[in-house]
Design goal:
The structure is a single chain. This protein has 4 helices and no strands. It is an all-alpha fold.
Length: 66
């Protein structure tokens, strides 16, 4: 039985994809062209891979329990 693993992407590749998104390429176009899921791109933005920290912050949520 084999285990399916997520592909590993270099920091440079992630930065390129995030830059494409911020330059106006849609999630659908990125997925079609590069096979990157919406959630992967959103996670990369939350990880700080962005040239626009304000835009990256709008996709990130912090849950607190009181």
């Amino acid at each position: 039985m084999s285990v399916k693993r997520s592909p590993k992407y270099t920091a440079e590749f992630k930065q390129t994809i995030v830059n494409l998104y911020h330059a106006g390429k849609s999630y659908a176009e990125i997925k079609k062209e590069y096979g990157i899921s919406h959630s992967a791109l959103a996670n990369w933005q939350c990880d700080g891979i962005s040239y626009d920290p304000v835009a990256a912050g709008s996709h990130c949520f912090v849950l607190t329990v009181s």
